[in-house]
Design goal:
Structural class: mainly beta
Number of helices: 1
Distance between the termini: 116 Å
Shape: elongated
Radius of gyration: 46 Å
Length: 384
Amino acid sequence: AVADSSDTVDEYPNDGNNVRVQSVYVEPRAFGDLVTSNVVAPNRAQQGSQLEVRYTVTNRGSASTYVSDWHDTVWLSRDKRRPSAANGAILLGSFAHSGALAVGEGYDNSLRVNLPSNLPSGINTYYLTVWSDAYDVVIEDTLSSNTNPDDPNEIDNNNYKARALQVIAEPPPIPEPVLVPDLTVSSIDADALGTGGERFSVSWTVQNGGAGSATGGWRDDVYLSKVPSLSLNDPTRVYLGSVARADALLPGGSYTVSHSFQLQPPAEGTYVIVVTDANRARGANGDVVETAEDNNGFSAATQVVPRAPADLAVTSVVVPRENFSGEASTVQWTVSNIGAEVWSGTSYWIDQVWLSPDPVFDRNSKFYRDRAIKVGDFAHTNSP
């Protein structure tokens, strides 16, 4: 016993008598010692089969077990050591036990376990290991007379006991070959001549040259280009459109698509390119797994020229000689098309009227744009 153990009271120099010692004897408590023995099981078994396992658990310690409920487990292990997933052992089952054991008492147990069905092929030696009180519920004192010689340095090493078992595992069946399709564009028939802004007709045939069926759910993309092969880095390519394929295509089968595309006025190219299973052409994974993924495109020669552009010009502007701020004013202007006919796909355009102190007006110049005032926007329809 120590008085003023935190030295709060100032007793100097009289603090040498704050400690008093009295001897006492504490008798250690005795514990039980569960020992697993007499593991009985077949010498040889087939993988995936069910086995009967019998074993005995005896309390060979110095006192009764102080708890009455624990679990025994059965493992398929690689060796006789303490089983765990870390050393490759496989837990086959966990089984509850109820009832305390006095010194010298024990129990015999018989149970059935199933061997795994995915073991390496051949005849291999494993160990059936029975482990009593596997979750360490019972406080035990492992006596030296009860040491398990298979794993003498492990704690509670006599709680488990291993028995050799040869397991026969048949080699897995040879998998059936996977039949894979192979989509290719076998032919293209396109208009020989085309003009931007007009309709352009293309027909193409896609064939399945693989050994498996192609399930529906891909699309065919159509392009114009100045080169015969499609590249993501091709600056000349013009995307015309896509046609979806919903039906499956059997091995050796084919389908033909005919489609008319509306060309934009500046469209031009010397080749029509059709790509089937077209996601891959866009840099993504294809929708169909194929034996070859680099043969999905095909090209045909054509000659598409851009449409001659219109050229709108303001040819005259008429305004009153004198205008007053804040009052209405009439502005009259004339627009002439000095180029080709305006494309029929153009619905309308916008004329703008600006008031500026400068005779020059440049909408791209901040200087002129800031000095000018927009009076209004006026739509003009593309009607005859």
